[in-house]
């Protein structure tokens, strides 16, 4: 049974925080990741969101929850994508009184040592803090050159199409104030894969969020297979392109509208 949280983000009064970790076939990573998160920030809880992993990740998650009162598990009936998993986590956390939710990968790519700095940015007033690979102090380790090139090119294309100043628009290590998330019309989000991160970043910018980028070191997964595939890439490319054209069309309409008024 889940308990009500009673710990605050360190050094602040923004309320209790929870780290959401989506899993699908992460039995080789989940124990190490959860232990590192708990050790890295003793004042947070952890929520494992498992999509009925056939490799038994959900059973391991249950054992972790039985052993640690700060660990919780949300079982989902089938694999529905990263976006749906995080939306379920946001709802779960909000219903239980959490004020801050952190997104973290299960595969060890995100260093829990960076977690306090993400939370410090929230405590300092940010509504969204992003663990950024592409600002001074941030970096990527052990990625093949083609993956790094794809990530950088995707970021450049997304920033150009949407007019964003955020340097790491696909960052998956991030913290939100839950009260701010409610402004993003989450019931209309249908992004499935990693495009979910772009989608929420874009929504946060349009909503006027205070967004802070925090440098992190991103490391290639410890074990298991990446969930990135062609369908996920196509989804992101298609959505960014159509959002970008719609954004530019709105800008042009505003320009023409001002011109008619002034004329």
From TrEMBL:
Residues in Glycosyltransferase 2-like domain copies: 19-184
GO MF annotation list: dolichyl-phosphate beta-D-mannosyltransferase activity
A Gene Ontology term for the protein's cellular component: membrane
Pfam families (alphabetical): Glycos_transf_2
GO biological process: glycolipid biosynthetic process
Family per record: Belongs to the glycosyltransferase 2 family.
Name of the featured protein: Polyprenol monophosphomannose synthase
Organism: Glycomyces terrestris
